[in-house]
Amino acid sequence: MSKLDGKVAVVTGASKGIGAAIAKALAKDGAKVVVNYASSGAGAEAVVAAIKAEGGEAIAVRGDVSKAAEAEALVEAAVETFGRLDILVNNSGVYEFAAIGDVTEEHYRRHFDINVLGVLLTSKAASRHLTEGGSIVNISSAVTSIHPASTAVYSGTKGAVNAITGVLANELAPRKVRVNTVSPGYVVTEGTHTAGIAGSEMEAGMVAQTPLGRAGRPDDIAGVVAFLASDDARWVTGEEITASGGVR
User: Fold this and answer.
1) Which of 221, 217, 230, 224 is nearest to 29 (CA)?
2) Oxidoreductase: is it a keyword of this entry (predicted)?
3) Active-site entry in 37, 95, 154, 186
4) Any catalytic annotation for residue 186?
5) What is the pLDDT of residues 183-197, one digit of tens each?
6) Which of 22, 51, 80, 132 is 20 to 30 Å from 147 by CA-CA measure?
7) Per CATH, which fold does 8-190+217-242 belong to?
8) pTM (predicted TM-score)
9) On the CB side of 214, how many CA atoms lie within 13 Å of its CA?
């Protein structure tokens, strides 16, 4: 019997990168998975196909988590399709770095709407269905402890996610629902390739500062999330696990 047999999970922003790896890892451990996406339907369907090819169950559901109605519909799709909800992984997020002199209202609102409001709205919707043994895992970032330049807005969103995790851990604890955070360091994804970071001098510099001596991979993060979602972490709540190869 796999660790997550009988469980149902929603993973936001799961059409690629870390989110896709998380969805596949949860499915490998036995969960039925809702693969959420905002724009890349083809990517989400590819993740679903990969899960089904391994014998798992999954569906793709479009939804902008920064909009209350769409966050609610995402959660309801999970319950209607699979009959329950046990795990929510708040992975949806955007990042665009800007020096303080270049910060705009649009830059701020886009980041906070998706990275923070999205976490609140999906957690609100999920909390109506999560029962004893349920788990919320929020994806934050190691930037909150290393404070790189030109990340004031992005780092601010992730600092907010860390605080929200602590509050919800206390708020949902009487119902025996756990809430934790995983904070990745630098991870090579489609996004880092698109941004020109992968293979760049910037990447080389980040790897040079990483004690374990390499860039992260999506599956490095997915394994930590799968642990927190499982009963192996039954006594873990309100925690932040930094998965960064040792970067502090």
Assistant:
1) 230
2) yes
3) 154
4) no
5) 999 999 988 888 788
6) 22
7) Rossmann fold (3.40.50)
8) 0.97
9) 5
Are 47 and 58 within 8 A, CB to CB? yes
Contact 23, 52 (CB under 8 A): no
What digits encode the pLDDT tens for the residues 209-243?
999 999 999 999 999 999 999 999 999 999 999 99
Give the span between the Cα atoms of 182 and 242, in whole angstroms.
6
Q: Hey, what are 103's tokens?
A: 């910060």
CA angle in degrees (0–180, nearest 5) for 230-62-242: 40
Which stretch of DSSP H or E encloses residue 9?
Answer: strand 8-11
Nearest CA-CA partner of 183 in 150, 214, 228: 228
Task: Tell me how far apart the alpha carbons of residues 220 and 205 are, in angstroms, rounded to a whole number.
Answer: 20
Annotated domain spans of the chain: 8-190+217-242
With a CB cutoff of 8 Å and minimum separation 6, the contacts of 190 are 16, 17
